[in-house]
Every structure is written in structure tokens, then in C-alpha cells.
Amino acid sequence: MSKTCVTLAGAVALALCLAGCGNSSESTDSRGGGASAAPFAGTSPSSAPVSAAVLESTDRAVVETVWAKFLLLYPNLITTYPQGQWPARLAEVAVDPIKAQVLTAAAQNRRADVGAYGTVIPHPYWQQPVAGKSTAVMRDCLDASRAGSIFTKTGYKRTVGVARSSIRAYFVKGGDGSWRVRQIEYHVDEKC
Fold first, then answer.
1. Which of 19, 41, 89, 135 yields a CA-CA distance of 20 to 30 A from 57?
2. What is the pLDDT of residues 21-35, one digit of tens each?
3. CATH number for the domain including 81?
């Protein structure tokens, strides 16, 4: 079944949506809350193999941490860093195509004197396991109701986000072992 979606260029882009739509299928495992385990740093003293559950929990926790960092970086990119540092800062948490989309949107916003305000609150959940793969798909019921875009010269709010945005975020684990956001979809016809 086709789902209507808009590809996002970051947290504030909920209101500044970029064009694009994807259709992907995912398993319908039970909906659960995000993992809270700390990243796993090695094997136990007895060198027993690490259980699949521990590895899954660790991958989910790391992905969720990267997601939170990504959501904090985008609205602060324009005001905190010189434009020449944007690609390096984004490379810490994102890869193309979302990295290129965020850079384009940030440059357009800077030229238009549009900035960000507020904070988005992630509510991640999982419908399919990472299962030791180098890719992951996480869902989020993102609360952006206290965030949006603002005209920086006048201080007038340009947009305000919504309280319950159905998000599907795609991640990839790089050769350096770090997870990064690869793409984000905003599913306008899905309730969360």
C-alpha cells in the first residue's frame, strides 16, 4: 500500500518540507519503546558470546542517540557554525542524501534570513529489528509543536510544527562503525 510522505531535511524541515516521496515496506513487529541500554563496550569477563538481545539493544540505543544529535544539530547549524563547517558537522550524524538536503535547505534559509526556534521531542519506536545489519529503520512520533521556523530579522514565526508527526528514519552504519542518518520520511497519512 502506497503511503503519502514527504522527505525531511531535519527537525525544522517538518515545516519546511523538501519535495520527494518514498515507498518502502517494513515488517509489522510489535510496537515497542526505545531501548535504554548503554552502548556495549566489549565481552564479559568470561568471554562469553554477546547475546543477540544485547546487540539489538545496543544498536537501537546508539541509533536513537544519533537521531537525537541530528535533531539538535539542524536547528542550530545556521546560528552556531560558520557555513564552511556545516558539511563536517553534519558528517558526524548524517550521510547523503539527507546530508545534502540539509545543507541545501540551510543555505536557502540563511539567504532568506530564516532560522529555527524551539525544540523537537523525539518519541522513537521500533517495528523491525536491526538484527546485526549495517542498516536500520526506526520510527518516531515526533513532537515539533514547540518548534518551527522564524524570520530572523523580525522575529516573526514563519511556521509551527505539529505535535504528532509520523516519521520513518533510515540509518546506515559506516566503515568506521558509526551510525548516521541516511534519509527521513514524514508520513502525512499515518497517525502516531
1. 89
2. 333 333 333 333 333
3. 3.10.450.50
